[in-house]
Write a structure and sequence with these properties.
Immunoglobulin-like; 51 strands; six-stranded mixed sheet; 5 domains; mainly beta; eight-stranded antiparallel sheet
Length: 717
């Protein structure tokens, strides 16, 4: 199997019930032409990264079992060991696509079926999914029939039969339908890798033909056929060359054809594909046509057993297509703008990494970043993307680079195709990105968001710290209402990131906050992270601000509390495309939420993490959004807060950079204390040199000659 997009797999060792060796699942699904595809397969089909750096497949292994890690062809496992390599092969096949969404509780109507489910048939070879308007009907009566089959062209051609699926009289969630039948394919049958109960003595070092063929049917066809679609062309005078390779052990080198059409399939023609012994490729030439047109085509090949197979199959695209004519369209730039420029120490910065997804209907000629700094706005520089497939370029700074908080980076991304069509990102408006110095980690954070300086502690993207109607005090709010993307597989992210990292304490390490959540609820019974869990909110942690993981392991929506759900559904408006909620949240709907910071396997006591709040909206339906108040992170270890005593003593400037002045001249001593209570500086008079302090909040504890102590809070920039 092959994909231009790397497949990321996460493996966990957990204690599972003794009857479960392991399980695997795709971490996400994407909709293509009304059909859901596991993320790795969707990325292969669309030839683009849809999942960022997150895992595409999660495999969980039962750590209580006695595993053999011997990878020899015929390992001696002894009496009590299970073969790990065989189990991994089995589970990866599930994660790559041999899984779906059929449950006994699914009901007989499915809006968006998973690709696997289209190949399941009853004993009469009638598909159990049938089209019904904009959705599909599922024949639930046959799920316990002990007579379900796989109707795939590759499986039929290369296994010689309609493979029998596991459908016992008792429905087993996760096993029924999504395995081959144990009785039909016992050990030694050659097709047993995907049966539900692998024994200790069943050893595989590569997938069997049944597994490979079923994966080919859903889109992983590379084992049998390898083909790259030609680029669009402006050459009307020349024939179009189509080439592909086939597995010579399984396929004939004659009688292969290209089926093609110039009018979208209304009129069909064909041309033979001739085998080239030197290149091991089949090559066909489609005649030229003097007018602008689109060539639609598919590959028809004959197996060594004289079975006929078509590529592509009936799902995703019935035909592949190539446009021939003038290139008049500009490239497309997809880019997630930088939020900040990280400064590592004073007057130096970390490298800036620019990334983008740049595509064109013909061919990209060049792509680049244009940038300048607020310290020198007249000096615009250019960085070129060297690799136009993986558009990533790094801007490095010299060690004496003199940028400080308050400075800005301005940049824009441009692209030009081979025909000279050009485009800039962000409607040609430069992004403005602030420089930001890292703050010292803290062990706790407590806020009710009423402090006027709280905006300095959060990096807000489509969030505000504000007092909204229906709330007595300030809180952290998303936009009300939030927006939807309006485009399939596109999402809008709302984030509020705490700038100051948190050091995780030992258990209990908890965070609590009050919240109101009115976001589009998912389907009943659908779990976070799977298709059908629509809009959601989540609190996430990260060690590097690049890879984020849910704190508390999962996100949630308006179904978490019944009164949220009832309020969400109390005022709905259908605009013909979307059914939006017009209900408005207020403080009476606040609920307390508690999260264990150590519940996610990625974080341990002593780790330093960044914390962010995130709302994700999909392509349809908006609602009021999210409000958060009374945030307490690891409150139990908070030191007593230094009281701010009433006083005529003032300090200035506030915020300060280098020197802090005290208005009273009757001073005995001054202590500068951080938020954890640690004394950072002492002085006997004003002003106090605070230039060496890192950025953050401090307290000036001022002892007067009378013995009185006055405390004032200030911000060091």
């Amino acid at each position: 199997m092959y994909s231009d997009v790397p497949i990321n797999v996460s493996v966990s060792w957990l204690e599972l019930p003794s009857n479960i060796n392991a399980y695997a699942e795709a971490t996400n699904y994407f909709l293509i032409d009304g059909i859901l595809y596991q993320v790795a397969l969707a990325e292969k089909i669309q030839n683009k990264n849809l999942n960022g750096t997150a895992a595409d497949i999660e495999v969980t292994i039962n750590k209580t079992l006695n595993w053999s890690v011997n990878t020899d062809e015929n390992p001696d496992l002894g009496d009590n060991k299970f073969d790990l390599a065989t189990t991994i092969l089995h589970e990866l096949a599930h994660g790559l696509g041999l899984s779906g969404d059929i449950q006994e509780t699914t009901g007989d109507k499915i809006d968006s079926p998973v690709i696997y489910d289209f190949f399941v048939c009853d004993s009469t070879m009638k598909k159990i999914l049938t089209k019904d308007g904009d959705s599909y009907r599922l024949n639930t009566n046959v799920l316990r029939s002990d007579s379900l089959f796989w109707d795939g062209q590759y499986a039929k051609a290369f296994c010689g039969e309609y493979l029998e699926l596991y459908a016992p009289k008792t429905f087993n969630s996760g096993s029924t339908v999504y395995h081959l039948d144990e009785k039909a394919y016992p050990k030694g049958s050659g097709f047993e890798l995907m049966t539900p109960m692998l024994t200790r003595t069943e050893i595989f070092r590569k997938p069997d033909m049944a597994t490979v063929a079923m994966l080919a049917d859903i889109g992983w066809n590379d084992y049998f056929l390898q083909h790259s679609v030609p680029q669009n062309s402006s050459d009307l005078a020349s024939k179009m060359t189509i080439s592909f390779s086939l597995s010579d052990k399984l396929l004939q080198t004659e009688n292969q054809k290209i089926i093609y059409s110039f009018d979208g399939g209304r009129h069909i023609d064909s041309v033979s594909a001739i085998y080239d012994n030197e290149t091991n490729l089949f090559v066909a030439e489609i005649p030229a046509m003097q007018f602008e047109h689109t060539v639609s085509y598919k590959i028809r090949f004959i197996t060594s057993n004289n079975d006929t197979v078509f590529f592509p199959n009936q799902y995703v695209n019935e035909y592949l297509s190539v446009f021939v004519g003038d290139d008049v369209e500009s490239p497309i730039i997809e880019h997630d703008p930088l939020k900040t420029v990280k400064a590592t120490v004073r007057n130096t910065t970390a490298d800036i990494v620019f990334t983008a997804d740049i595509s064109d209907n013909f061919e990209i000629d060049s792509a680049y970043v244009k940038y300048y700094f607020s310290t020198n706005p007249n000096e615009t520089k250019t960085l070129k993307f060297a690799n136009l497939v993986d558009c990533r370029v790094v801007l490095s700074f010299p060690s004496d680079a003199n940028y400080s908080e308050g400075d800005y980076l301005y940049y824009i991304i441009g692209a030009v195709d081979k025909a000279g069509n050009a485009i800039y990102s962000n409607d040609s408006v430069y992004y403005q990105v602030p420089f930001e110095y890292p703050l010292e980690p803290v062990r706790y954070l407590i806020t009710d968001f009423d402090d006027a300086e709280m905006d300095n502690y959060f990096r807000l993207d489509k969030f505000t710290i504000s007092k909204e109607n229906g709330f007595e005090n300030k809180a952290l709010h998303t936009a009300h209402p939030y927006e939807y993307s309006g485009s399939a597989s596109k999402y809008i992210q709302y984030t509020a990131t705490i700038k100051q990292p948190i050091v995780i304490a030992s258990n209990p390490a908890t965070m609590t906050f009050d919240e109101v959540v009115l976001v589009e609820p998912g389907k009943a019974g659908i779990q976070y992270g799977t298709f059908g869990f629509w809009d959601y909110v989540v609190v996430e942690g990260s060690k590097d601000e690049e890879n984020w993981y849910p704190l508390g392991k999962k996100g949630w929506d308006s179904q978490l509390w019944d009164d949220w759900k009832q309020l969400y559904h109390s005022q709905k408006k259908n605009d013909g495309k979307n059914e939006n909620s017009l209900a408005v949240g207020d403080a009476s709907y606040f609920k307390k939420h508690t999260i264990n910071l150590l519940e996610n396997k990625y974080f341990r006591a002593g780790d330093t993490i960044f914390v962010r709040f995130r709302l994700q909206s999909d392509e349809t339906n908006y609602a009021w959004g999210w409000a958060i108040d009374n945030l307490k992170i690891q409150e139990r270890i908070a030191l007593p807060i230094i009281p701010l005593a009433p006083s005529s003593v003032t300090i200035y400037p506030n915020p300060c950079t280098d020197w802090l002045f005290v208005s009273d001249n009757q001073i005995r001593s001054i202590e500068i204390v951080d938020v954890t209570g640690s004394v950072k500086l002492t002085a006997s008079s004003s002003p106090v040199n605070v230039s060496a302090l890192t950025q953050g909040v401090y307290f000036a504890k001022i002892m007067l000659s009378s013995g009185e102590v006055r405390t004032q809070k200030f911000v060091k920039q």
